[in-house]
Specification:
heterodimer, A: 264 residues, alpha+beta, Immunoglobulin-like, 60s Ribosomal Protein L30, Chain: A, 12 strands, 28% strand, rod-shaped, B: 467 residues, mainly beta, Rossmann fold, Neuraminidase, 2 domains, 6-stranded mixed beta sheet, 4-stranded antiparallel beta sheet, 4 helices, elongated
Chain lengths: 264, 467
Amino acid sequence: MWSSRQKIVIAGVGLGLAVFAAGCKKKAPVAPPPPPPAPVAPAAPAKPPAPAVTQFTAEPITIQRGQSSTLRWEVSGDISSVSIDQSVGAVQNTGSRRVFPQDSTTYTLTATGGGGTSTASVTVTVTAPPPPPPPPPPAASPKSVVDRIANELQDAFFDYDKSNVRSDAQSVLTQDATALKSILTDFPSATIVIEGHCDERGSAEYNLGLGDRRASSAHDFLVQLGVPADKLHTISYGKERPQCTESAESCWQKNRRVHFVPGQ
Amino acid sequence: MRKIVLIPYVLAVLGGSIWLPAQDINVDVSKEAGRRPRIALPELRGGGDAQTYMGAFNQALQEDIRTSGFLTVVAATMYPKSIPQQVSDWRMPQAPAQAPRSRRGEMVTAPDGGGLWMSDWSRPPVSANYMAFGYTALQGGVLALYGNLFDVTRPNATDAQMIAKRYLASSNDEKGARDLAHQFAADILALFGGQSLAGTHIYYVHQASRMTPKEIWVMDIDGRNQRQLTHFNSLTIEPSVSPDGSKIAFTSYAKGSPRIFVFSVDPVRDLRFYNQVASMNGQPSFTPDGKQIVYSSSAGVCCRVFIANLDGSGFQAVTSSGSIDAEPKVNPKTGQTILFSSGRSGPEQIYLMSLNGTDIERLSDGTGEASNPAWNPDGQHVAFAWTRGYAQGKFNVFIMDVGSRQYVQLTHDEGRNENPTFAPGGTHVAFMSTRSGREQIYSMLADGSGVRALTSQGYNYSPVWGK
C-alpha cells in the first residue's frame, strides 16, 4: 500500500512533469501576437468592442531558478476587469509585477469588458542554476580502502569475559580473511587495525586486557587463514568505546566484539 | 585521668579485627577508645578588613576538622551567647557574677560566664572536650591568625591551653584565609594523631562529555582548584602519583596504542618512559621509593605484571600466567609485596604476591568480581571494588585486613562504586561513583561515613590521592 505521504510525492512528481511538458511546448521565448479584434456581431451593432491587450511581456523571458522576471501589460478599450492567473490576481489596466516562478510558467492575462473578453499569454522559462564544480576525481580506484574495510569486514562477537573465537565468530572471521586478502591485493600498502572491545561489566582496567586478548585471538585466527601478519595491528579499547550503552545483554553482546579500521 | 592511646574510630566498626598502627598521642583523653572527642568550633571573626575573608576561613576550618574523622564538631546552636576571641577574654565567674566586658564592648549578662569561661563549654548542652577560638587581623599588612585551642574540661586556663599560636597567611585574600585555616586545622588534628590532608591532591581523569577526550586533571581534596594537566586530546587514563607527589604516571592512546607516560607535576613535563614493544602497556604505579614503576603489559601475551626503572629501562616480567594480570600496586610500607587483580582463577579477583612473583595468594574469596586494589598507607589494609552480593558489574568499595582477610563494605549499592584510593594517613578514601547518574568523584571517611561529592561537571573517573 502507498502511504499518504508517498501519494503526495507521486502527485507532486506528476504535477512537476506536467509543468515541464507545458514549458517544452512553448519554448520560443516570443510573446504571442495580440489577438485579433473581436468580430463585430452583425446582429448587435450597438455592442462596444472587446478590450484590446496591447502589451503583455515578461522581461527577462528566461531566468535561473531563484531569480525574478517582470511582467508588463497594457490593456485598452472598454474594460471592466483585468486579471493574471498563477496567483497574480486582479491588476490595473496598465502595470508591471515581479514574479518568482520556481519552474517554467505560462502567465495568462484576461481582460473583460462590455464587448467581451480578451486574453494574452507569456511564458517565463526557468532554468536550473549551474551545478557546483565536480569534486576532484578519486586518487585511487573508485572504491577507497576505507570504504572497503567498512563495507566488507564484519565484526566478530565474543562471550562474556571470554576471548576465544566461538563458532559463529569463526565463520565471520573466515569471510573477513577472504575479504582482507582481496583488499590487501588491491591496496598492497594498506594496514588494518583490529580493535578489541568489551561490555560495561568488569573494571575498565581488566577490560583493557580482555579487549587486547580478543583482538589478539582474531589476529591469530586471520593469520592462520593466510592473512599476512605484518598487515594486521591490534589495539584494545576495553569498555572505553562502546557502540551501545544500555545495561542489557542485547547491548552488551554488541559491545563484546572485534572491529576493523584502516591503519595509519 | 589516664594516658591512653587513641585508636582511630575506624577500628570500632570492625570489632577491633582491623588494627591500624597504634599512635601515641600527647593528649590525655578520659574517653573510651574509639569515641571521637567533641570540639566546639565557633566562627572566628576578623578585625577591620580581615573580616572580608572570614567566610572562606571559617568554611575551610570547619571542613578540615569536620571531615577529619578525629573530632566531632558540636553544633553551633548549642553554643553559649558569648564567645572568647583571645585568652584574656576568659573570666572565671564569681558569685555573684561581676558582669565582664567582651572584647567587642558588649555587656555580658548571662550567668556562669555566659561562654567566657571554660565550664560554659564543657557542661551540657555543649558538652565539649575542646574548644578552638581566636581572631584574624591585618598585622603589618599581612593577614594573621591568632589561634587558640583549650581543653575546656580543665579547672584552670593555664593547664588547659594546648595551642596559642600566630599564623601568617601566604596572601591577603580568600586563598590566604583558607591557607590560614588549613594551618590551624593541621595543628589541632596533629594533637589527636590526625594528619592534616590540607595541601594533598587528588589526581583523576576528566571528560567534558561522553564523546570528548579524557585527560588527567588534579584538584584539592575539597574539589577546589580543578585544573587540567595533560593536553593530549586523546584517551588518557589510569593516573597514579609518586610517593613524594612530584610525578604522575598514566596511560594514554596519544601515540596510537595504549602506552605509559611519566610526567613531573610542577612543571608539567614528559619525563619519557620507554615502552617495551606491545599492543598495550598500562596501569602504571610507583614503588614506595619512587624509583621504579610496576605496570601491566601485553608484551608476548596479554597480560603480565612488569617492573621497570622510572625511565622504562631494565623491565622484567613479574608474573607469567596465561591470564590477565592487571593493576599492580607495591606495598607502600614494606616495598616487598605486590597487590594486583587477575582473572587467573575465573572472574577477576584480588591477589597478593612477592616482588619476584612468588607466593601468590588470593585475597578476595572468589565470589563475584573484585578489582581496583589500593593499599592503605599502613601497608596492612587494602581497599578494592567488589561485586560480592550484587549483580555483575555492580561494584561497591570494600576494605580488607590483609592479615585476617576480614573485610567491611563501605558503599551499598548506590550505583557503581569503583577505584578507591586512600588519603595519606589512611583516614579517608576517595572513589568514583555513578550514584548521581553519571561518573563523579567522592570522598568519605575510611568507615564509609561522611560521603562528599568532589566533582559535578562532566564525567570524572579514577581518583588517586597523593601529596
